[in-house]
Amino acid sequence: MDTPIEVLHRVFGYDSFREGQQEIIEHVVQGGDALVLMPTGGGKSLCYQIPALVRPGVGVVISPLIALMQDQVDALRALGVRAGFLNSTQGIDERQAVEAAFVGGELDLLYLAPERLRADSTLRLLDRGDISLFAIDEAHCVSQWGHDFRPDYLALSGLHERWPEVPRIALTATATPATHAEISSRLGLDQARHFVAGFDRPNIHYRITAKSEPKRQLLEFLRTEHPGDAGIVYCLSRSSVEKIAEFLADNGIPAVPYHAGLDAATRAAHQSRFLREDGLIVVATIAFGMGIDKPDVRFVAHLDLPKSVEGYYQETGRAGRDGLPATAWMAYGLQDVVQHRRLALEGDEAHRRRQVLHLDAMLALCETAGCRRVMLLDYFGQELDKPCGNCDTCQAPPESWDATVPAQKVLSTVLRLARERRQKFGVGQIVDILLGKKTAKVLQHGHDALTVFGVGTELGNTEWHGVVRQLLAQGLLAVEPAHGALVLTDASADVLRGQREVRLRRDAPRPTRSRPSGGGGSSRQAVELPAEAAPVFERLRAWRAATAKEQGVPAYVIFHDATLREIATLAPSSLAELGKVSGVGENKLAKYGEQVLETLAS
Ligand code: ADP
Ligand code: ZN
């Protein structure tokens, strides 16, 4: 029988385990139960795939991602692993063939949709085979706290009673203490060993920029930093998804929309194109992305503020799974804060309190003058010993300034309108008053007679919006849910009385253009291709695209970008040399080795 490291080399073609993998794999190989918390892109799949290959019997993987099962199974088959799946998308013949293979011991891995386990027939089928382990993927789906709650997952606690001797491994990338505890208790994994991997993704560059003209900013970001790259752009609403996708396409950038309002066939088609084509952008609501394990997503852009740091980290984590440099970029502005503060006022008391906590953490991340990565990891209870050097605030530390007087001007305008006029207004009117603009609306309300009229000419319109945004973020101002009018908070009084200093972060006058030198500073693979290797890489990519198309699988199922880059750089001249490249396992070497060498020689 092969050892785990032998399987890693032979089947997957990788040199070494990533952090945490080996311990987890050995524990499960020996029959232990495990609960695994690992960030998106951390390498969870190997943690059950290798034990399933090492232990006798079939590894049963429970996954909610029905639309992706075919690709997952294709990727395993390309490695020479005997894999199959059972879900509602199959015809009877196909299902029976998979069932027969399972019972006959001709499978290494069987993927199952969770609802299958509710059917008695499935349980009886499983009884007839030899099971090596149960892997419960996306285990946070048992959690009432997450967005992806699936009642079917609750039934999974029954697995242990029916098959007490079969080890279970549950995996998730959602790792706040509350979710962790809930997964553990709902799946009956209190006795299991808990593995919490480091949540850092060093190859991802984080950047959060002040939103002024989002479309133009996005376009500039894509053109200067990611031309021709695949990526995801997240928006909050369906209509902005449609608009942005159209805008990008109009500007010659291939992009497709994805949201829950599109019919299932269109969604599936767009997802499939994203997985199969090189360099396509998906503009999406958060409905897109769970389980998308495309390794070469080069950027994730947010045009609206995510609802929580957890959501942000999961979404941005979809970038750069292959370990090459990737960018998490977000444009965020005053309207985001207003909108979220309003959303956070909906629902029952407990819900509201939770929303506010989530939002405050998210805003703190946006407004921080410190290292973003330090703050992100701290949110997951992990420590980074020094600033990362690969986020915007590390590379261009923002200045902070004493904004006490400007803050007082804003607050006192709000106060005067309320006291003297019994009026409330949104940010636009407040700023016009401060700037002394005699707009129709100002004149109509006689606001030019207020003592604060024109007292704020030391800042421009954009700066005032920045001040209001940060006051909202710090809770020194609030918005009314109904009309978005600004109102004072308890904390405002201290500022007005001069008992509290207000320090704000100076927004960059312009969106930063500079590309951090070399991207992921701390990433081992962050090297650019040498000049002579670039055309070779392009030839290999063309070969890969043709091969993938012929076989009807995503390009990355053939080889990852990282593997092609290494091949282009090393230019191996024999099969033996090619076999040493990371990502070239036994099966792929036999299947594609000659073709790759020919492509190199051509
Ligand atoms: P997760 O499910 O945790 O998001 P995956 O299991 O999809 O992550 O792995 C992310 C990527 O890293 C995949 O492309 C996988 O092939 C690659 N990978 C995983 N483990 C290793 C390893 N030990 N060496 C090299 N690449 C690895
Ligand atoms: Zn940093």
Q: Would you mind describing this structure in some detail?
A:
By secondary structure, the protein is an alpha/beta fold. It is 45% helix and 12% strand. The protein is built from 27 helices and 17 strands. α14 (334-343) runs parallel beside α21 (461-473). Mean pLDDT is 90; it is low at 510-527. The structure holds adenosine-5'-diphosphate (ADP) and zinc ion. The site of zinc ion (ZN) has 8 residues, from α16 and α17.
Short description:
With 602 residues, the protein is of the alpha/beta class. It has 27 helices and 17 strands. It has four domains: 193 residues, P-loop containing nucleotide triphosphate hydrolases (Rossmann fold), CATH 3.40.50.300; 157 residues, Rossmann fold (3-Layer(aba) Sandwich); 107 residues, Arc Repressor Mutant, subunit A (Orthogonal Bundle), CATH 1.10.10; 79 residues, Orthogonal Bundle (DNA polymerase, domain 1).
CATH fold assignment of the largest domain: Rossmann fold
The CATH homologous superfamily of the largest domain is named: P-loop containing nucleotide triphosphate hydrolases
Strands ordered across the widest β-sheet: 3-4-2-5-6-1-7
- Assembly annotation: single chain
Any idea what the CATH architecture of the largest domain is? 3-Layer(aba) Sandwich
How many strands, what sense, and barrel or not for the largest sheet? Answer: 7 strands, parallel
Region (Disordered): 501-528
Domain HRDC: 530-602
Catalytic activity: Couples ATP hydrolysis with the unwinding of duplex DNA by translocating in the 3'-5' direction
Enzyme class: isomerase
